[in-house]
Amino acid sequence: MTEVITKKVTANEKDLNRDPLTGTPGAHPLGTTAGATSGAVAGGVAGLAVGGPVGSMIGIAVGAVAGGLAGKSAAESINPTAEEKFWRETYIREPYYVKGRTFEYYAPGFRAGWEGRVRHDGRTFEAAEAELKVNYDLAKSELAPSWQDVRPAARAAWNRVDLNWKAKQ
Q1: pTM tops 0.70, yes or no
Q2: Domain presence at residue 39
Q3: Final residue of a domain: which of 16, 41, 76?
Q4: Which residues span the domain enclosing 56?
């Protein structure tokens, strides 16, 4: 006897922003980690000032939880699948586009831009650029373009996320 496997179909399933490891809707490790890290640092500093070393440890724990939730919320406001689809369809109309270069050439730059905007919420592109470049260089393959070549794409993706966030406020 053959077992039949069915899949429950959810309306707008593409918009659920599923965690790539657990499949949980709305779980964004990138945003949660970024928020938890910044929250832990802020909580630790505040706790140290108020309660010394013990206060610092408590502040780190509380700050990490609060920051993680805030980071998850920030990450929820972008959909990486939708961002990739947008750029795949429009990259050839960008002023920095060089005829003959494929989407795959620019894709790492776009990704660095939209992911960076989430990680560096509250900072400008210029203030975050050195860290964006370091992360890009660490993650890129040997054949990937240099940061200078994809910087305009990263900036464009950063600006798109930034404009979308401001429009929602």
Answers
A1: no
A2: yes
A3: 76
A4: 27-76
Q: How far apart are CA 161 and CA 77, in angstroms?
A: 9
Asked whether residue 47 falls in the same domain as residue 122, the answer is no
- DSSP letter assigned to residue 14: G
Query: Quick one: which H or E segment has residue 71?
Result: helix 29-76
Residue keyed to tokens 């270069």:
101
Which pLDDT tens digits describe the chain residue by residue (169 residues)? 555 454 343 344 454 555 555 555 554 555 545 544 555 455 544 555 556 666 555 655 555 444 444 444 444 568 999 999 999 999 999 999 999 999 999 999 999 999 999 999 999 999 999 999 999 999 998 899 999 999 999 999 999 999 888 887 6
160 falls within a domain? yes
